[in-house]
Design a protein that fits this description.
Elements lengths: L6 H7 L25 H9 L14 H14 L3 E5 L2 H10 L7 E5 L4 H13 L3 E5 L4 H7 L4 E7 L11 H10 L3 E5 L4 H4 L9 E5 L13 E5 L1 H15 L5 H11 L2 H19 L5 E5 L9 H7 L6 E6 L2 H11 L4 E2 L9 E3 L11 H7 L5 E5 L5 H14 L1
Parallel strand pairs: 2-3, 2-4, 4-5, 5-6, 10-11
Antiparallel strand pairs: 1-7, 6-7, 8-9, 9-12, 11-12
């Protein structure tokens, strides 16, 4: 890794591999297996593989390895393991580490599938899970004990854009010997400073900003060499959660423009949040880049940006939210985010629909709430589209 390279240079060149043909573009090694020159080499490789020696695509692949080294170099971790999806990364990061009797403390403001892993999967196998209000440091202090194995949280919650103080929670966790695992997808690898702020493990859904064009599912777990090679890899290799080489190639191509895309999206998100703040039919605007956001100072210190998503509550509940969404002409109605195309999502009926009404209310997910992932369209066109949607309300 070239630690002195700046972000954009790393996004283009980090971890690059060239075949004997000297190709400019990253090659796709679209193979499930690898041949050995002799039986002795095969035996030796199964005992211990070198850094550029491969056995089977589920274990590793040259294209995938390039992606892993590139994202690890960008994130500032020693290593990474690419997975079939973002949820495979979350599940792999947690399940590979934990066993019956272990204790995990998690923020309660999580994506529905993350909650399922913590509430249903881990507890089914005897892991004790405690939930806290991620903003309340006193709750973290009370919940994290000497027996706590790990803490888990979204650095910015989905969909209410609530921030957890990575540095403060990491200090609390490390004082008790717990590992800090951060789902950093809303922060993006561009605005992330999670490792410098104390995170031990950083998880991304590469489906979002890393691909950035809605083409493929993927995920990645970033961490220390020991954690990746001794904890994550054995679990993921044997349970089959590895990414495909073709998907790794897609992600590598997405990374080349990620810095430019995320910064353009965040600039538009700031403008959209400011425009929405003056709209009569909008009851509330949630965007960490606004000074009115209760965690604005933390967002600037932790990310240096408000991010690429804006959440806002349309007056009139679900019916008004649906009228707004159905009137949009540029933004698409979908449940993805981080795409080049702007996306409007109604969390209470889609991404978070499995939560009870009480859980939704506790997390601030109201019937009128819209999560808006800002794309690369012209900012003025997006503002006009939002106003057209509000006119239908």
């Amino acid at each position: 890794m070239s630690e002195n390279w700046k972000t954009r240079t790393k996004l283009v060149h980090e971890g690059s591999r060239r075949s004997q043909y000297g190709e400019m573009a990253e090659a796709i090694f679209l193979t499930q297996g690898f041949a050995y020159p002799d039986a002795e080499t095969a035996e030796a490789r199964f005992i211990e593989s070198g850094p550029d020696e491969f056995i089977y695509a589920r274990y590793g692949n040259p294209t995938t390895r390039t992606f892993e080294e590139r994202i690890a170099g960008l994130e500032g971790t020693e290593d990474a393991f690419a997975t079939a999806s973002g949820m495979a990364a979350v599940n792999g990061a947690l399940t590979s580490l934990l066993k019956a009797g272990d204790h995990v403390v998690s923020s309660k403001a999580l994506f529905g599938s993350c909650l399922y892993i913590l509430e249903e999967v881990l507890t089914r196998f005897g892991v004790r899970v405690s939930f806290v209000d991620g903003v309340d440091l006193d709750q973290w202090r009370a919940a994290v004990t000497p027996g706590t194995k790990a803490v888990f949280f979204e650095s910015m919650s989905n969909p209410t854009l609530e921030l957890v103080d990575i540095e403060a929670v990491s200090k609390i966790a490390h004082a008790q010997g717990a590992l800090v695992i951060v789902d950093n997808v809303f922060a993006t690898p561009i605005f992330s400073r999670a490792v410098a702020q104390g995170a031990d493990v950083v998880v991304y859904s590469a489906t979002k900003h890393i691909d950035g064009q809605g083409r493929a599912l993927g995920g990645v777990i970033c961490g220390s060499s020991d954690y990746i090679t001794k904890v994550v890899q054995p679990y993921m290799k044997h349970t089959g959660g590895a990414i495909s080489p073709f998907t790794s190639w897609i992600m590598l191509n997405g990374m080349a423009t990620m810095d430019l895309r995320c910064r353009a999206m965040a600039a538009s998100a700031q403008a959209l949040a400011e425009a929405l703040s003056g709209e009569e039919k909008v009851a509330k605007v949630i965007y960490p880049g606004l000074e009115s956001h209760p965690q604005h100072d933390l967002a600037m210190r932790q990310m240096g940006s408000g991010g690429t998503l804006v959440s806002f509550e349309v007056s009139g509940g679900k019916a008004a939210a649906f009228r707004f969404m159905n009137a949009l002409r540029i933004a698409r109605i979908s449940n993805n985010l981080g795409d080049a195309k702007s996306i409007a999502t109604h969390p209470t009926t889609t991404t978070h629909q499995r939560l009870s009404d009480a859980q939704k209310a506790g997390l601030g997910i109201t019937p009128g709430l819209i999560r808006f992932s800002v794309g690369l369209e012209d900012t003025a066109d997006l503002i006009a589209d939002l106003r057209a949607g509000l006119a239908a309300v």
